[in-house]
Amino acid sequence: MSGTSVAGAAWLGDPSLQKLLAVLSEGNDSARVVGGAVRNTLLGEAVTDIDIATTTLPDETVRRAEGAGFRAVPTGIEHGTVTVIAGGVPHEVTTLRSDIATDGRRATVAYGRDWKVDAGRRDFTVNALYAEADGTVIDLVGGLADLETRTIRFIGDAETRIREDYLRILRFFRFFAQYGGGRPDAAGLLACARLKDGISRLSVERIWAEMKKLLGASDPSRALLWMRQAGVLNLVLPETEKWGIDAIHGLVAAERDLGWLADPLLRLEAIVPPDPARMVELAERLKLSNGERDRLLAWASAPLPAHDMAEAVFARLLYGGDLQACSDRLMLALASARSYAGTSDRHMIEAGGYGRLLKFASTWKRPVFPVAGKDLQPLGIAPGPAMGDLLRRLEADWIAANFALTREELLTRATAPGAPG
């Protein structure tokens, strides 16, 4: 890949980015785009963030950016990073640096002007590629060769890189899931296995953020397998140890074939047991958001509808349950059944049934019970426990009738002999 360039990339032609690179390269200074934007462009992947490395010190970065009419925010200035908003696009601009002390979670840095030293402190070779303003790619650590083979390789000694920040263990598998091919780099895999206990030194928020990204990769199945082989997965998600991760393959295949979007939470549900108590423990341990916790708990508590369930019965189940949880159950069941449908008539029939129910659920609208307490008061029924009992009985009748009873029919039942009053 000699003479490699990203000159044709749309993002590089942005006038605001070019202006920012120019002002940061005045005098004896220089600035280059670094990392993901360069890597993804060369791989033909989407580019979401455009980060910049520069020889200017943070205060000088701010001065030059603001002098050019851009907004500069000192988001990580203690580590040399300033976020510059140029043309409405935020760019993390970081001064070249070297690590002078690390504790496995964070580093004390010293600023410098040596591009090779800056590249050497990064995690993987494919993340240490720079691009000049004209698109010329600068490779100081062998990243281009690794891009060609889709090898995720630590820069220099793998164990040294990991000890600088143990999150790099999870990043190794996450980048393998997203960009890797074949088998993981042997030295990197061995280093992750040897140093896996260092993960316990990380905050659970960082662990879950990285795992969520891994689960959102195009196909995390191979990475999860190698994580399990290295003993890393059981440390992060002990719930998978006896449950297994085989279902992830069928889910990824169903996503591809049926056009489902990659869903990290659904993929997590595919590799953990539907046990409400364990889901509560998982959510507390990893400090999941309330929404993530509630979804996992509802999924673990929801029944799996029978594949041959009548739609009228299914509608009653949906009314009394959680639509998202039921859909999650059906998607996982459909993915599993599809995995065996090619060699099993039973599974083919099940897949058809789950697909039918899932389609029904996707268009189902929750019906509104047409009677409220205010409708019962004119009938002489006062607010209180008796009214509540009557409303619950009427709603049960309405559900049993497949939601077909009208308001008038329900009110007639409310005044029938034997109704609470």
Give an overview of the whole structure.
It is a single chain. Among the domains are: 1-149, 2-Layer Sandwich (Beta Polymerase, domain 2), CATH 3.30.460; 302-363, no CATH class; 373-414, no CATH class. The protein is 52% helix and 10% strand. By secondary structure, it is α+β, with helices and mostly antiparallel strands. It starts with 14 loop residues before the first helix and ends in a 7-residue tail after the last helix. α7 (167-179) runs parallel beside α9, α13 crosses α18 and α18 packs antiparallel against α19. A hairpin with a 4-residue loop joins β3 and β4 (81-86). The protein has helices spanning 15-24, 36-43, 58-67, 115-120, 143-149, 158-164, 167-179, 186-194, 204-215, 221-229, 233-236, 240-243, 247-258, 264-270, 276-286, 290-301, 311-320, 323-341, 345-363, 373-376, 385-400, 407-414; strands spanning 31-34, 51-54, 71-76, 81-86, 89-95, 97-102, 107-111, 129-131, 137-139. The chain has a seven-stranded mixed beta sheet. Strands 6-7 form a two-stranded antiparallel sheet. The longest helix is centred in the last third of the chain and has 19 residues, at 323-341. It is elongated.
In short:
With 421 residues, the protein is α+β, with helices and mostly antiparallel strands. The chain is built from 22 helices and 9 strands.
